[in-house]
């Protein structure tokens, strides 16, 4: 049984260099085609660097200036890039970046609160992604995390009902104990992460069928060690985060084989150019570099900072979250 | 920034230089287009020329959400208000024009969806257009989503879109109802729901028969079943043997007898399990089916005239003894499969799960009451599971301690 394959390691220096270079690839078309993800990309890169103990790789003042340049004065939300419209997805990334850099007070906090509270549907408790009204469990998680970071997750705010949004999440529960993106939708590991994150932040985890859901989650692990996001789908490094963080919130990380998953993630690295891909042999990107690294961190990989499974922020900065959930 | 399934290729310095040279031209072109669109928006242009610019940019990059927003602004700020007859009282002409404009956009979106079937923004924009259509064509939408699910039977967005279309179609039919009285309206609404429910239920049967591993279809079936079994029209049709759709799905003849329906469904899932005992989709659904009979058949929501109540309101579907018998029958059936497939992890899992469910949950035994024989059987099966499925050994160890604690 003690079959040790080639001793794979985490290529920290390569990954740091890879992330550092990402902001300079303006001569690649991909750089311009992905402007709508710039804020998320910056958060993914910075968080990965923070887990590697290397936040200083990116110039703090530059990053803060960029984030500030993306806040819309009228709505209070952030766009992905300066000329892009505000959206909750980029607003959370912006705030997470500022938490890591301890610079939340450099932006208009009241504006962020106004933006987030304005996106709740007062009847269903659903949260919209932006003023055009796409609703999804992801956005409840984002709203709760933002309010929690800013210390404003009060259950009885006149413009925001935590209870109603929790009810919306519970309306998304399914036969397998998991959650879909909206009521009626199939369970999906990434949506489960957001649902459990929202329920943890709002101290409502007792409403989850933990055994049933953990069973579904641990069945995501395939013989190759990697995890998929739904039954009968291919494995992908990003589920190392969505599934394992969910198991962490349920206290069941040991329900999967961490050693085999570690191997699967490490194999997806580009040992020459740095970065992690969705699977071995594929092209790397900053998204999988973060979620692979974060997965390794959850599994206790040596040499990486600890990640918080609820906020996807390094534990070392969690004291900056003004209203963290009560720990069980 | 997010890539899936793109093979890594090593390039030489020369290849890279060539690629960059080619890309430089594209970058200039792309950035030029982005600048033109942004300038157009900054100037408050909401005309057809602006729409054309967004068409060009979104064809190139459908992920650019800001441009979808601008496109919607062009409709609401520019195109709709300036349509002919705005000032006249000819509302019908005006609505036709709005519909024509939106139909053109739906056509554009359809092409984008075929190019990027997993892009949230495109689906979102389609819903926006339909939400503003004076005469949305839901049959056309069903056909479109049918095609998308034909191409990829698990497309997450596709299934969600299908449920959305059904909901919207139902709402539109209800809105168009011409009812004599409140009671008449209730009956007609129930009939509308019945039609849609049965069509959708039969669709899941079709998808599952094609591929037992289609968990998206099992999932949808689980959502539809409780609604179908409490729908008065479906119950009445089933009782009177007047349901023409029985030819599509024989299950519809059993809607008035939920116990028989449940038994038929158990038989169906058994087929799936016996065909491929390693198919987790079937086992997930199976566990839900056996452990949730009360949630599945809670009886009719309300009594409608003409339809006799299925069960007295508030009564339970199954007696406690019947439920125990059902679980025992499942244990026996999995046991038969286990004789043929002694190394099937799912069979062993099922045997442990249902045995424990039977004695602890249904019969209320405490672990101290377990017979020595039962204990030994469960423990040896758990140990075999750990051997057969070491990835999940942690789960099985936790399970062992929880089974044997009171």
TrEMBL record, chain A:
- Gene3D superfamilies assigned: 1.50.10.20
Question: Into which EC class is this enzyme placed?
Answer: transferase
The Swiss-Prot or TrEMBL record lists the needed cofactor(s) as: Zn(2+)
GO molecular function terms here? Answer: metal ion binding; Rab geranylgeranyltransferase activity
The record ties this protein, via Pfam families, to: Prenyltrans (PF00432)
Q: Which family does it belong to?
A: Belongs to the protein prenyltransferase subunit beta family.
Stored PANTHER family? GERANYLGERANYL TRANSFERASE TYPE BETA SUBUNIT, GERANYLGERANYL TRANSFERASE TYPE-2 SUBUNIT BETA
Protein name as it appears in the record: Geranylgeranyl transferase type-2 subunit beta
**Biological source species:** Nadsonia fulvescens var. elongata DSM 6958
UniProtKB/TrEMBL annotation, chain B:
Q: Which domain of life is it from?
A: Eukaryota
Where does it sit, as one GO cellular component term?
Rab-protein geranylgeranyltransferase complex
Q: Show the SUPFAM superfamilies listed in the entry.
A: Protein prenylyltransferase
Please list the GO terms describing molecular function: Rab geranylgeranyltransferase activity
List, alphabetically, the InterPro entries matched. Answer: Prenyl_trans_a
One GO-annotated biological process of the protein = prenylation
Give the EC number: 2.5.1.60
Enzymatic reactions: geranylgeranyl diphosphate + L-cysteinyl-[protein] = S-geranylgeranyl-L-cysteinyl-[protein] + diphosphate
Classification via Gene3D superfamilies: Protein prenylyltransferase (1.25.40.120)
Keywords per UniProt: Prenyltransferase, Repeat, Transferase
Q: Which PROSITE patterns match?
A: PFTA (PS51147)
Q: Which family does it belong to?
A: Belongs to the protein prenyltransferase subunit alpha family.
Q: What does this protein do?
A: Catalyzes the transfer of a geranyl-geranyl moiety from geranyl-geranyl pyrophosphate to cysteines occuring in specific C-terminal amino acid sequences.
- According to UniProt, the name of this protein is Geranylgeranyl transferase type-2 subunit alpha
The protein's organism comes out as: Nadsonia fulvescens var. elongata DSM 6958
């Amino acid at each position: 049984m003690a079959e040790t394959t080639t001793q794979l390691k985490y290529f920290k220096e390569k990954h740091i260099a890879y992330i550092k270079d990402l902001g300079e690839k303006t001569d690649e078309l991909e750089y311009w085609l992905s402007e709508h993800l710039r804020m998320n990309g910056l958060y993914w890169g910075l968080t990965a660097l923070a887990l590697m103990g290397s936040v200083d790789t990116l110039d703090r003042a530059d990053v803060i200036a960029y984030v500030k340049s993306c806040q819309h004065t009228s709505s209070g939300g952030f766009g992905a890039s300066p000329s892009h419209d505000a959206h909750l997805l980029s607003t959370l990334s912006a705030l997470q970046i500022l938490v890591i850099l301890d610079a939340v007070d450099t932006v208009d906090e009241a504006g962020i609160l106004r933006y987030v509270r304005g996106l709740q549907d007062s009847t269903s408790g659903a949260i919209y992604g932006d003023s055009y009204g796409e609703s999804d469990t992801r956005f409840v998680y984002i709203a709760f995390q933002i309010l929690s970071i800013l210390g404003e997750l009060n259950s009885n705010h006149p413009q925001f009902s935590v209870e109603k949004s929790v009810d919306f999440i519970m309306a998304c529960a399914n036969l397998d104990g998991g959650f879909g993106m909206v009521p009626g939708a199939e369970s999906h590991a990434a949506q489960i992460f957001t649902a459990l994150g929202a329920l943890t932040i709002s101290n409502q985890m007792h409403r989850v069928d933990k055994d049933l859901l953990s069973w579904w989650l641990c069945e995501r692990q395939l013989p190759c060690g990697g995890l998929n996001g739904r039954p009968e789908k291919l494995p992908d490094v990003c589920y190392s985060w969505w599934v394992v963080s969910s198991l962490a919130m349920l206290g069941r990380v040991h329900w999967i084989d961490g050693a085999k998953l570690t191997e699967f993630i490490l194999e997806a690295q580009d040992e020459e150019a740095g970065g992690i891909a969705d699977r071995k042999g594929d092209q790397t990107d900053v998204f999988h570099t973060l979620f692979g690294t974060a997965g390794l961190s959850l599994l206790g990989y040596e040499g990486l900072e600890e990640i918080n499974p609820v906020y996807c922020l390094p534990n070392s900065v969690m004291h900056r979250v003004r209203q963290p959930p009560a720990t069980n | 920034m997010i890539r899936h399934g793109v093979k890594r290729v090593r390039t030489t310095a020369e290849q890279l230089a060539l690629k960059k040279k080619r890309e430089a031209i594209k970058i200039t072109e792309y950035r030029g287009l982005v600048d033109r669109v942004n300038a157009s928006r900054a100037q408050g242009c909401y005309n057809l020329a602006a729409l054309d610019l967004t068409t060009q940019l979104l064809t190139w990059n459908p992920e650019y959400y800001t441009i979808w927003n601008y496109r919607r602004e062009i409709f609401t700020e520019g195109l709709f208000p300036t349509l002919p007859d705005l000032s006249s009282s000819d509302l019908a002409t005006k609505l036709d024009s709005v519909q024509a404009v939106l139909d053109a956009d739906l056509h554009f979106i359809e092409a984008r969806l075929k190019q990027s079937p997993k892009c949230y923004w495109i689906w979102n924009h389609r819903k926006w257009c339909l939400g503003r259509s004076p005469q949305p064509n839901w049959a056309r939408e069903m056909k479109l989503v049918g095609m998308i699910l034909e191409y990829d039977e698990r497309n997450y967005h596709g299934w969600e879109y299908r449920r959305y279309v059904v909901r919207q179609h139902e709402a539109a039919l209800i809105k168009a109802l011409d009812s004599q009285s409140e009671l008449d309206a209730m009956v007609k609404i129930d009939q509308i729901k019945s039609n849609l429910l049965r069509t959708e239920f039969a669709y899941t049967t079709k998808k599952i028969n094609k591929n037992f591993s289609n968990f998206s279809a099992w999932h949808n079936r689980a959502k539809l079943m409780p609604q179908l079994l409490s729908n008065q029209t479906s119950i009445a049709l089933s009782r009177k043997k007047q349901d023409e759709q029985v030819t599509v799905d024989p299950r519809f003849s059993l809607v008035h007898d939920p116990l028989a329906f449940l038994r038929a469904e158990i038989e169906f899932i058994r087929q799936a399990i016996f065909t491929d005992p390693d198919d987790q989709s079937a086992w997930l659904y199976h566990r839900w089916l056996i452990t949730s009979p009360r949630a599945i058949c809670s009886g009719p929501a309300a009594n409608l005239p003409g339809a006799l109540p299925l069960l007295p309101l508030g009564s339970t579907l199954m007696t406690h003894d019947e439920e125990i018998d059902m679980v025992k029958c499942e244990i026996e059936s999995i046991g038969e499969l286990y004789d043929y497939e002694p190394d099937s992890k799912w069979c062993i899992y099922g045997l442990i799960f249902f045995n424990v469910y039977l004695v602890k949950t249904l019969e209320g035994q405490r672990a101290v009451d377990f017979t020595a024989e039962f204990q030994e059987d469960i423990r040896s099966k758990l140990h075999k599971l750990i051997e057969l499925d070491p990835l999940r050994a942690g789960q099985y160890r936790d399970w062992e301690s929880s089974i044997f604690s009171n």
